[in-house]
Amino acid sequence: MNSLGSLAPSSIFLRTTGTLLIAFLAFAILVLASVAHFTIIPLARSAGDDLAALMLLSARSWTEIPPQARAEFNDRLYRNHGLRITERTEAIPAGDKLPLPYLEFVEESLSRRAGFDLPLRQQMLDGEQWFWADLSFGGQSLRIGFPIGRVATRHLEGVLAVGMITVLLVLVTSVFMAGRTTRRIRLLSAAVADVTHGQLPEPLPEKGAHEVRRLARNFNHMAQEVRELLANRTTLLAGISHDLRTPLTRMRLSLEMLRELQDPKLIDGLCKDLEVMDRIIGQTLALSRDLETREEKTVDLVALIEQVAADAGRTDADIRLSRVARTCIRRINPLALQRVLSNLVGNAVRYGEDKPVDLMLECASTVIIRVMDRGPGIPAEQREAVFRPFHRLDSSRSAQTGGSGLGLAITRQLANANGWSVTLHAREGGGTEARVLLPAEQGRK
Asked: How much is the average pLDDT of 178-194?
């Protein structure tokens, strides 16, 4: 079915073949016309002039030799030069136009050399077409001529050969060029169909032309992101189910106990469990909402970071802000960036052991925002794992020792969705540095 599809009227293969065929034929016609104009026609004129000179010289020589030697001279002339001389007896009637341009060149040269109009006449002799010129030398009327086979060319065969070679070259070129490209496009189409049907295809080979390699690389990157997205969503749902099951179990037990006694501690526990459940659901909904929001605005990043620091300072956190520019104008999604920075600052405050958190902005062609704490730090082998949903450095999943495990996952996904990058590094002197990078293609205004 794929091979039939490649032969559809709108297929790349047939379009490429048609384009190449037209281009090759046009090239062949232009080359033949140029060669004919600059080479073949001048050579034909020169050859026609030589033949006309030979005919006149042979006729003059024939009149000057003895009559008994003329038969041998005529045989040798025909054998060596394809010419024959006879005495003129009756006129040959004028026929159709000469069939070859070369004969017109011979006729023109004969007339020019003789000094008067000397046409070539056509006559059938022994089943072959001959061309004769009537001359008069030394009072004798002669007729000298040559057969069509002496000057005939196989121009029809030549045109057919050029056409066949052109078609063959076009087919070979099309198979080599379009065939390889369409094969990779068919692979890409099949892979896209797999993604459409919910399947995850194998990575495409990144080979071929630069554009094809780039297309395959982008598709593989997209497929990997889809794979990670599905994995994150699966982990997210599993984590939500797990985290909601624990407070639900506690609430069920508390309600059973409330039937027998009303304990304020049980009621407080129920309220806390509800708060945990509400926080988990709220963060999940916020992630979905923020990923769908792509509204970009031109904002001052300095003002945005100052707002993030001020919001964190309302919780008695010690946020120290430093910047290298008074303004930093960029066109971005401000809500997404504010949420990314708020999550990072919140993590730094939570795990910073009540020490100051430094927030730094570096504004250049590439914007770098650093959130640095003096907490215990994150082991190098865990710095990527903490971006997975519900991944925690400590083994417990209690809300007392940290958040729900969604903060950094939301941060990474929001950053990726907007073309930013978020990475974690060890801070010099102890602690963790979270680095947000906004690439230059975000553009200045």
From this structure: 73
Q: Which two tokens stand for residue 189?
A: 């189409």
Nearest to 52, CA basis, from 103, 124, 94:
103
Contact 133, 145 (CB under 8 A): yes
200 in Cβ contact with 227 (< 8 Å)? yes
The answer to whether residues 178 and 11 touch, using CB atoms and an 8 Å cutoff, is no
> Closest by alpha carbon to 87, among 76, 97, 74?
74
What is the pLDDT averaged over residues 5-23? 67
State which amino acid sits at residue 432: T
CA 408 to chain centre: 36
Alpha helices in 293-443 (DSSP H): 301-313, 334-351, 407-417
Mean pLDDT of 339-346: 89
Whole-angstrom CA distances from 372 to 69, 93, 180, 301, 392 are 120, 111, 52, 18, 19
Please choose, from the candidates 249, 276, 254, the residue with its C-alpha nearest in 3D space to the C-alpha of residue 266.
254
Contact yes or no for 158/147 (Cβ under 8 A): no
Tokens of 25: 């034929």
- Residue scoring higher pLDDT (156 or 409): 409
- Cα of 141 vs its chain's centroid, Å: 77
Asked whether 37 and 43 are in contact (CB, 8 A), the reply is no
Q: What is the pTM of this model?
A: 0.46
Closest-CA residue to 442 (of 342, 371, 367): 367
What secondary structure letter does DSSP report for 388? S
